[in-house]
Here is the input.
Amino acid sequence: MIVVGFAVPKKDHGYELIEKLEAGVQDMLQIFKIGREMWLLLNR
Here is the structure.
């Protein structure tokens, strides 16, 4: 992982950013899933 080479405070910040990115990706996937389900319902 890229953050391994950083100093401890920067590494911790890097892990925090990665966690936020993962949460954002999960939110985005949920939005796409709902959008796809709505599209499928409307286009029967």
